[in-house]
Amino acid sequence: MMMNSIKKGFFFVILIAILLVSCQAGSTQPSTVLTSTPVQEIAGETESSQPVLSTATIPVQTGINPLTGLPVSDPNILNRMPVMVKVSNYPRSGRPHAGLSFADIVFDYYIGNGTNRFLAVYYGNDSSSIGPVRSGRLVDAELVRLYWGILGYGSADEDTDAVLVQALGERAVSFEEALCPAFCGTDTHSVVGVFASSADISAYAKQNGIDPGGTPDLQGMYFNEQVPSGGVPVEQVNILFNYYNRAEWKYDAASGSYLRWIEQMEGDENEGDFWMVPLVDRVTGQQLAFDNVVILFAHYIENAPSEHEIEIMKNIEGKRAVFYRDGQMFEGQWKVPNDQAPIQFFDSSGNPFALKPGSTWIVLADDNSIFDQKESGAWELFFMLSPDA
User: Fold this and answer.
1) pTM, whole model, 2 decimals?
2) Considering the chain, what percentage of its residues have pLDDT values greater than 90?
3) CATH of 62-67+75-389, one of 3.30.9.10, 3.30.56.10, 1.20.1440.60, 3.50.90.10
């Protein structure tokens, strides 16, 4: 009798959801998209750090990528874990990067000695060439768990690798384990030694029982074509990890996206001349463009000059976030509800903040970083570690 009651209640909920969707179908007003919320049989991790995904999922919006709010051409692509690949930004001779324009999300963070590195997330799209692939960092363990992902990386120092393997188990896939076409190349310490294919990493993970298939629970991000109220017009945001490590995002009204510029340099690192050039994707030959740029302020802990912890999962109460979309800047907060749910964004009133449907570039800045307006329509973040880091 109890089971019958549960089933009746379940079908009643589904019926109500269908009726609500039907009622909204005729509306011409843009609506906020709560990302796909699968019904999971089990949510958690086994002793081998393998999350158990449901193979009988019921997404709220079938075929919508929960990390972009956009429909995918083939809904079957969402029946996998996101592939999250480490991409080098230094040395400069490794540029231009490959495949970043295909990522749903790119995390951009400090790795020491004035340099930064990227963690690119591929879920609704794939790229056949991603890189240059480089080593993992401690924060990757947290980010990959939050997004139910598979980490594709070159290698890591012994202590860092132990943390990654302990946290992710077989989901930490190095180029030494998954051979070409998943990772092609022989040396990640070479500037352009190894490049990855996200689709082939997915195939490797499924063939080896790392990814059991099914839809991961990636709910929590909101998207809306309508621009939120309360924004301040800002045409450009600069991100500096040191004076000579510069990124500029300039809003392009024609495309409705932010175009990326990056420094090019001649001479000594500390005394040479530099200028800004468009950053292109070596796969497409086109300038890198993202729909949203987000700055999250977090606490860094420096264990060594090139080893840092970034407190992501501990942020339950909320920390400062700055959002850029549609040529406007918004203040808000970011939170992590638990250790198996994506980062969530809120406006200054505590309501969910709606990103523009599309790709998002996320910068992880230390709380001590300087963030101010440089001129009319342009803001700048200068990364600085806290004194107690």
Assistant:
1) 0.86
2) 76
3) 3.50.90.10
